[in-house]
Amino acid sequence: MTPSSRATDITRWAVWDKHGIYGPKLRDFAALAAAWEGLRLKLETPDAVPADAETFKVLSERMREFCARLKLPTCSEQKTDVVIGCTDSRGFIPGDPARILSHWTWRDSGRLSRLSHDDVMAEWERSER
Questions:
Q1: Phi-psi bin for 45: left (phi > 0), alpha (psi -120 to 50), beta?
Q2: What is the dihedral sign for C-alpha 98, 62, 49, 77?
Q3: For residue 53, how far is the Cα from the chain centroid?
Q4: Which of 7-16, 28-37, 64-73 has the lowest mean pLDDT?
Q5: Which site in 15, 79, 105, 115 is 20 to 30 Å from 88, CA atoms measured?
C-alpha cells in the first residue's frame, strides 16, 4: 500500500465523525499520519539513515500539534511504543481501529496496512495457528 493509499484508509476510520473531523482537515491529518507512520516503521529497519531520524522528529512535532488542535486522545506518559502526543497508550495513531480489532501491535498493524489484502489474510492465518 502506498502512503497515499494509507492516508485514504485513515480517512475512512469511523472515529472521525465522533470528533467532528472531516474535509480538508481530515485529509491533511491523514496524509501526515500516513507519512509519519511509514517513517516510524522505516526507522526500525536497516534501510533507515540518520536523516530519517531528523525527519521523524519534525513530523512528530507536526503530529503533536495536529493531534492537539484536533483534540485527539493521545498518551501523555512515556511507555513502550508510545510517542507522547502522537499515539495512544499502545502506540497506535489516534482512532486506528486496529487497536481494538486485533491483538497485533502498532508495528504489525502498520506493516500489514502496507500489504495487499491477500498478504494480510495470509499473515493473519499464520498468526492464528
A1: beta
A2: negative
A3: 17
A4: 7-16
A5: 115
120 or 98, greater pLDDT: 98
Q: What's residue 2's pLDDT?
A: 72
Q: Is there a contact between 116 and 5 (Cβ–Cβ < 8 Å)?
A: no
Average pLDDT for 30-50: 92
CA distance 12 to 21: 11
- Give the pTM: 0.81
Asked if 60 and 36 touch (Cβ cutoff 8 Å), the reply is: yes
Assign 3-class secondary structure to 11-39: HCCCHHHHHCCCHHHHHHHHHHHHHHHHH
